[in-house]
Each structure stands twice: as structure tokens, then as C-alpha cells.
């Protein structure tokens, strides 16, 4: 039996925790949630909070999202002690700069017998997968074909430059067991159901599992506090620690944030970008307090508290993992209460930070200048640049599906538009020229006339038939406000059927 019961020994090392986000898309509220608990625990114990960027998956990488992670966490006030931008004794803190380290560790694992080279072709693996799926096999995964290749066979394949991956040699029987400090019973996985995980891809890049474990070890991480979606990866990590002969960290898997219907928190049902909440005027300390309540109980029905108070009161026994529901109405109520609790001076200062930041106001005035007659017109003219959802009642009859498309198809078009922007490295930046180029190309690809799509976009984003130049309007409204409104508009079209 493979065991990793380790509660005692980690306590003897200096406490070090980390968050390890992957720079894929906008920074997610789930990242903030995990960061909060790591941060609070580190501060409570006088430990070190590390930010590591896990960017080895080049296919999922999106430009600019590393900087966005820094920006979002800084806005929330969750300061890290070591990281790619601030440095530290265990750097580099960006995995793409550590490739030589992973290579070295793969060699070490191969030498220790904890991993093996697999030369199977993609065709063979696809065939295997198809067969396993067709026969409803209980084991979906690699069949171990290359586990025991002789040294001579391996050498011949290597000499012939046959591409290979490196896989974890998972024991064929027994169980892998680990303690999760947030769950009453140790967690067990039957080894025969754990796949011989690929650790190094044929291009020489490590997979998440290898890089994550090597880095956690080399960075001296004592407690891994992460979302429960990683529980199924943990047996592989435990086996890796064993294969290397290293002491594993103490595992704490926090509950996964959920929509009201208990499904995993998703873009489709809730905005999940931290920037959405910043853009729409939620305050960072309120958002943190709201998220703290999702997993931490201050006790005695106390819901409103600061991060400092949470640090003071923090104990793992006050943390629960039962499916925390991200309820935007509750966040809204908290934010409203916090606005009411501020002095007018404090409120005024707060508004200057973003909503009425001088640079923003000047950019808006530049858009309105040509179109208003009286100074007093500026505010009503610019009103749609503020706030979240709009009232479309005055323009309902103008909202029409493009020629030849049903309402449902038009709704889908808007959903596609919002989604594709995310995948377009230029358009994601949400500048007017990038939006224009993207939108024209989108029209071609989706066989829709620019005039028709642009009118829909304008109506959706501004609630008006006329506004400043469309793409300037969108850029100044900001991605999150636009996304909210386009989602509203698509919902409206869909409702019409
Ligand atoms: N890179 C993983 C993520 O994107 C890290 C998971 C972990 O904390 O081990 O969340």
C-alpha cells in the first residue's frame, strides 16, 4: 500500500504556500478565492506566500494574461512575497523559464525507475482509446505497452530518433492514499485506475503534473491549498513525490465555487472574471469579504469582516468545503452596505480611483464633445458608459436579427462574438482598432453584413441607435461591461424565439 501521511513533518519546515495560476484568459474569481486562503494562512502563521506562473501549456496560453493576474491580485490587495515580478530565492517563478530543471528531473525519475519512455504513436493511442471506450472498459488510459521495453529496444528507438513521451510508472495494484486536511477521512485511489500520466511531452515540455510537483518541492512548499478539482490529480502527485523520494506537502483542497444551481461556476451563468467585478464597481475589500464567507466561518453569524480580522481568527477548523455558492445578489448587498457605511469624502475619493478617474473622464469627454450643445448635456449623454445592464425598452423595435437569421441564430452570433474575442490575442486587448479588425473579420467568417452586426453591437452596448464611433464606444465601455450587455442582448433575442 502506498501511503503519504505526513501531517507532522511539514510542520517543522518554514511555512511556504503558493498559488500557481495558468495565464489563460481573464483572471478568474476562483484564483482570487484560492489566493485569499493561501494569503490568510501565510499571514496568520508568519509564512511566505508565493506566486508562480504555470505557463508550460503553450496551446492554452494567452498573451497579456500573466500581467492581468498580477493586476487583479494587486487590486485585491493580496500581496505575494515571492513571484516572477518581485523575485525571491527560489526563482525563476515562471515555469517557461524552468524547462532545464524539468528535463533534469525527468532524467532523474527515469534513472530511479519512477518513469519510463513511451514510444507509442498517436494512431496507436487513438485506437486504444476507441477500443476502451467501445468496450466500456473500467480503465480508460494507457495500457502500459512501453512500460517494460528492454534497454536494447529503447536504445534502438532512440537512435532512430523515434519521438517519445515520458510517463509516470504507476504501481499496478494497491492504493495511493493521502490525507486532505480539510476532509475527515484519508482519500484513497486504486492504483489500477490511475493512468500512467504523461510527465514530459514529445516536444520536451513538461506537463502540469511534473512541473507542479518539481516546483512545489524546489520552492519548499509546505502546504498545497488549491481547488478540489485537483483532487483526482493528487494521487499522481503523491506517487511523484514517492518516486523522487521527497516529502510531500500537506494537502488542503478547498470547495469548488458553484453557480446557484450547484454546477461549477461558469462564464455561462455568472461573470467569472475578477475584472468584471472591478469594472462594475464592486470594491476589492467587499469582494474579498464575500469570497471569504464562501469557505470560512467567522462564527456567531458574523459575515462582515476584513481580511485582517480573518487573519486574526483563521483556523482550518473554521473552513468548510461544501460546495460554496457564488451568489451575486449577496455580493451586491454587501457592496451596497459598504457604500452606505462610507463617509461622503471617502466615497468621493473611491470614485476618483476608477469610475471618475480623470483620465477616463477626459477620454469620455472627447467622445461627447462633438455631440452635445450644453455643458449640462455631458452627463446624460455619457450615462451608458457607466453601470451594468441597460434598459432596452426604448429600442426594442430596433433590435432585429440580421437578414436571413432567426432570433436564436442572432443570439448565437452574439455569444460567438463574445467568445471569439477572448481567443483573439489582439481583440482581447479591447482597443478600438483591434475590435474593428476583429469585427470585420468576424462578419466575413459568419456571413453577416457588417452594418447589421454593428447595429446590434451598438444597440447592445449603448442601448441607443446612435452613439460615438462603435469601436471607441466599446473600448471605453470596457470588455466586461460590453460582455454583460451582449449577453443580455443575446438573452433577449433568444427569449423572442
Ligand atoms: N496551474 C494550476 C491552475 O491553473 C495549479 C493547480 C495547483 O494549485 O496545483 O490552477
Write up what this structure looks like.
- This protein has helices at residues 7-10, 29-45, 65-76, 99-112, 122-134, 151-159, 208-218, 234-244, 274-279, 284-295, 307-313, 328-340, 344-353, 358-368, 378-382, 407-423, 432-445, 450-462, 470-477, 479-496, and strands spanning 2-4, 16-19, 48-51, 115-118, 165-168, 175-178, 187-190, 198-200, 223-227, 250-254.
- The chain has a domain at 385-496: Arc Repressor Mutant, subunit A.
- The chain is built from 20 helices and ten strands.
- The longest helix is centred in the C-terminal third of the chain and has 18 residues, at 479-496.
- Helix 8 (234-244) links the parallel strand 9 and strand 10.
- 45% of the residues lie in helices and 8% in strands.
- Helix 16 (407-423) packs antiparallel against helix 20.
- It has 497 residues and is mainly α.
- The strands form four sheets. A three-stranded mixed β-sheet has the order 1-6-7, with helices on one face. A three-stranded antiparallel β-sheet has the order 4-5-8.
- Bound molecules: glutamic acid.
- The site of glutamic acid has 8 residues, from helix 7.
- Glutamic acid (GLU) is lined by residues 20-22, 54, 208, 212, 226, 230.
Care to give the gist of this entry?
This protein is mainly α. It has 20 helices and 10 strands. It has a domain of 112 residues: Arc Repressor Mutant, subunit A, CATH 1.10.10.
Strand order of the largest sheet: 1-6-7
- CA-CA gap between termini: 58 Å
Report the helical percentage: 40-55%
In what range is the share of β-strand residues?
A: 5-15%
Please tell me what the overall shape is: globular
Strand element count: 10
Major beta sheet summary = 3 strands, mixed
The name CATH uses for the topology of one domain is Arc Repressor Mutant, subunit A
Computed structural class: mainly alpha
How many helical stretches? 20
Order of helices and strands: EHEHEHHEHHEEEEHEHEHHHHHHHHHHHH
Radius of gyration: 26 Å
Low-confidence stretches: 1-8
Ligands bound to this protein structure: glutamic acid
Amino acid at each position: 500500500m502506498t501511503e503519504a501521511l505526513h501531517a507532522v513533518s511539514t510542520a517543522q519546515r518554514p511555512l511556504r504556500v503558493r498559488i500557481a495560476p495558468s495565464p489563460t484568459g481573464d483572471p478568474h474569481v476562483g484564483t482570487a478565492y484560492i489566493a485569499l486562503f493561501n494569503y490568510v494562512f501565510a499571514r496568520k502563521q508568519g509564512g511566505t506566500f508565493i506566486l508562480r506562473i504555470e505557463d508550460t501549456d503553450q496551446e492554452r496560453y494567452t498573451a497579456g494574461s500573466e500581467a492581468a493576474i498580477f493586476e487583479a491580485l494587486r487590486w485585491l490587495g493580496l500581496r505575494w512575497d515571492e513571484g516572477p515580478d518581485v523575485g525571491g530565492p527560489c526563482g525563476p517563478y515562471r515555469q517557461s523559464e524552468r524547462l532545464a530543471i524539468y528535463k533534469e528531473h525527468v532524467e532523474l525519475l527515469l534513472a530511479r525507475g519512477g518513469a519510463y519512455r513511451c514510444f507509442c504513436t498517436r494512431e496507436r493511442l487513438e485506437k486504444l482509446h476507441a477500443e476502451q471506450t467501445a468496450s466500456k472498459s473500467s480503465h480508460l488510459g494507457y495500457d502500459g505497452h512501453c512500460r517494460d521495453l528492454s534497454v536494447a529496444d529503447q536504445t534502438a528507438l532512440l537512435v532512430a530518433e523515434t519521438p517519445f513521451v515520458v510517463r509516470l510508472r504507476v504501481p499496478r495494484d494497491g492504493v495511493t492514499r493521502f490525507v486532505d486536511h480539510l476532509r475527515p477521512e484519508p482519500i484513497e485511489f486504486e492504483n489500477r485506475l490511475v493512468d500512467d500520466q504523461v510527465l514530459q511531452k514529445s516536444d520536451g515540455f513538461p506537463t502540469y503534473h511534473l512541473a507542479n510537483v518539481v516546483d512545489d518541492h524546489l520552492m519548499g512548499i509546505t502546504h498545497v491549498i488549491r481547488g478540489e478539482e485537483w483532487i483526482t490529480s493528487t494521487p499522481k502527485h503523491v506517487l511523484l513525490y514517492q518516486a523522487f523520494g521527497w516529502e510531500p506537502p500537506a494537502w488542503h483542497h478547498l470547495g469548488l465555487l458553484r453557480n446557484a444551481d450547484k454546477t461549477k461556476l461558469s462564464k455561462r451563468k455568472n461573470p467569472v472574471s475578477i475584472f468584471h467585478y472591478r469594472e462594475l464597481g464592486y470594491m476589492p475589500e467587499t469582494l474579498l469579504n464575500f469570497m471569504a464567507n464562501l469557505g470560512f466561518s467567522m462564527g456567531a453569524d458574523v459575515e462582515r469582516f476584513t481580511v485582517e480580522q480573518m487573519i486574526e481568527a483563521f483556523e482550518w477548523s473554521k473552513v468548510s468545503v461544501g460546495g460554496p455558492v457564488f451568489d451575486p445578489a449577496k455580493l451586491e448587498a454587501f457592496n451596497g452596505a459598504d457604500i452606505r457605511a462610507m463617509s461622503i469624502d471617502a466615497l468621493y475619493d473611491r470614485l476618483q480611483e476608477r469610475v471618475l478617474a480623470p483620465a477616463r473622464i477626459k477620454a469620455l469627454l472627447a467622445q461627447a464633445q462633438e455631440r452635445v450643445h450644453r455643458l449640462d448635456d455631458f452627463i446624460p449623454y455619457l450615462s451608458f458608459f457607466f453601470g451594468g445592464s441597460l434598459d432596452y425598452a426604448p429600442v426594442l423595435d430596433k433590435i432585429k436579427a440580421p437578414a436571413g437569421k432567426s432570433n436564436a441564430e442572432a443570439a448565437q452570433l452574439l455569444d460567438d462574438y463574445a467568445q471569439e474575442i477572448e481567443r483573439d490575442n489582439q481583440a482581447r486587448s479591447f482597443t478600438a482598432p483591434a475590435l474593428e479588425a476583429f469585427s470585420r473579420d468576424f462578419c466575413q467568417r459568419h456571413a453577416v453584413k457588417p452594418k447589421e452586426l454593428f447595429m446590434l453591437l451598438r444597440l447592445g452596448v449603448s442601448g441607443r441607435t446612435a452613439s460615438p464611433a462603435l469601436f471607441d464606444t466599446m473600448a471605453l465601455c470596457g470588455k466586461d461591461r460590453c460582455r454583460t450587455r451582449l449577453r443580455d442582448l443575446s438573452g433577449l433575442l433568444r427569449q423572442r424565439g
